[in-house]
Design goal:
This protein has 7 helices and no strands. With about 170 residues, it is mainly α. Helix 1 packs antiparallel against helix 6 and helix 2 packs antiparallel against helix 5.
Length: about 170
């Protein structure tokens, strides 16, 4: 009877250690995925922002309906009449495009003073590094799951487990 109690205690400890190990592995994976997502929220460099703002100002002009007075209208001779047809957003877009872009950039620059900016190359490098770390963590999790299954402990895999880890040959696992 003592032997059975000892075996049960060992099994219970092994089960508890397995739970702790899986929890730690999965928390590590979640933390890495959160870091990866955060990288996507880091603003780009100011040159990229400038291109975005300029493209927006161009879009304002492109979307105008043409309901604004042309320069020729003001050059009319004696038959000049004050324009009575125009869309205010068209006038603003047409004649204040540069001012609009400059104003937006001024606000962006004041908002970005304390922010980290990142180039696309740096973003890609960081994401690649984190993706590699995620795969390593998932391979470690899979190694733990397989060891548990071999010992007779059934373990459910995460629904979002990376197929590269789940299907990896045993020689690829840590």
């Amino acid at each position: 009877m003592k032997r059975i109690k000892d075996l049960l205690a060992k099994t219970s400890r092994a089960s508890s250690e397995l739970r702790v190990g899986l929890t730690e592995a999965r928390e590590r994976i979640d933390a890495l995925k959160a870091q990866r997502e955060e990288i996507g929220h880091i603003p780009p460099t100011m040159s990229v922002v400038r291109r975005r703002v300029d493209a927006f100002a161009e879009l304002v002009v492109e979307r105008s309906t043409g309901m604004y007075p042309s320069p020729e209208h003001f050059l009319a001779g004696g038959d000049y009449q004050q324009p009575n047809y125009f869309a205010m957003e068209d006038v603003l877009g047409r004649y204040l495009k540069r001012t609009l872009a400059a104003s937006i950039m001024e606000e962006v620059e004041s908002a970005v003073e304390e922010m980290e900016l990142i180039s696309e190359e740096e973003r890609e490098a960081r994401v690649a590094k984190i993706d590699s770390d995620i795969l390593s963590a998932e391979l470690a999790e899979e190694a733990l799951i397989r060891a548990a299954e071999e010992a007779g402990f059934p373990v459910e895999r995460r629904l979002d487990a990376d197929p590269r880890a789940v299907l990896a040959p045993a020689t690829s696992l840590p």
